[in-house]
Amino acid sequence: METTKIKEPIYMKWWVWIVIFLVVAVIINYTADIIEDYTSIPEPSEIEVIPYRVEFAEEVTPVLANYNTPTTFLIGTDFPAGEYFVMTNNGTLGYVLLTRSRNLEATEIIWQKHFANHTIINLIDGQYLTTKNATLIPIENAIVPNFNDGILSAGTYRVGIDIPPGVYTIFPIETKTGFFSTASSSHHLDAHIIQSRNFSEPITIALNIGDYITFIRAEIRK
């Protein structure tokens, strides 16, 4: 009588379990290596993001304040293009720099200036404005200081709006050398300057409607 040999299921074979054990061990080790690689990546360091954008409630007069640290704004993104009244924050000189890009190389600079008390600037979409010790206010919301006790202090003024047109004498303060310039706009471009001068003695100038007068280390007396 012929005996029929029954085949063992493959999972009952001893060598199959050894193969399974080796495969599982390789997978576990590979997974552990991947996890270790990712956890060893250092956390990114904190980065100061510029430009810094200030949000305001609709009922509040929009004011762009950048405190005492240099801050860069993209015009048209961080705030609209237009004319702005710029005040110093703490009584020291303010600083504004206008560039064509965020690159601060000399070839990208449109203009830059230090100013006393306040100035007026005109900004165009796509320009970059870097400021220090300055607060920006849309010109239509600004109250531009006028003659106080008969004296007009250093700053920038619109002739016909902030001060009347006419003939004025500018006096240097004490023994300092004063400076003044007149321009046809608040874009601060060389092509818009009418005249500019340093002076150590009182100087008399005529101001016409539409002019912008800027002076520093000096004052106008009524």
User: How many beta-strand runs?
Assistant: 16
What is the helix content?
10-25%
Number of domains: 2
Helix-strand makeup class: mainly beta
| Termini gap | 137 Å
- Average pLDDT, all residues: 77
* Cα Rg: 35 Å
The main sheet orders its strands as 1-8-3-6
Strand content: 35-45%
Which fold name fills CATH's third level, the topology of the largest domain? Answer: Jelly Rolls
**From the structure provided, what is the oligomeric state, counting identical versus distinct chains?**
single chain
Total DSSP helices? 1
Q: Catalogue the unreliable spans.
A: 30-62
Largest sheet descriptor: 4 strands, antiparallel
Given this structure, which CATH class of the largest domain is correct?
Mainly Beta
For the record, the CATH architecture of the largest domain stands as Sandwich
State the order of secondary-structure elements, H for helix, E for strand. Answer: HEEEEEEEEEEEEEEEE
What shape does the CA trace take?
A: elongated
Q: Would you write up a description of this structure?
A:
It contains 1 helix and 16 strands. The strands form 4 sheets. The protein has a 4-stranded antiparallel β-sheet, with no helix packed on it. Strands 2-7-4-5 form a 4-stranded antiparallel β-sheet, with no helix packed on it. A 4-stranded antiparallel β-sheet has the order 9-16-11-14, with no helix packed on it. It folds into 2 domains: 82 residues, Sandwich (Jelly Rolls), CATH 2.60.120; 79 residues. It is elongated, with a radius of gyration of 35 Å. The longest helix has 26 residues. It has 222 residues and is mainly β. About 15% of the residues have low confidence.
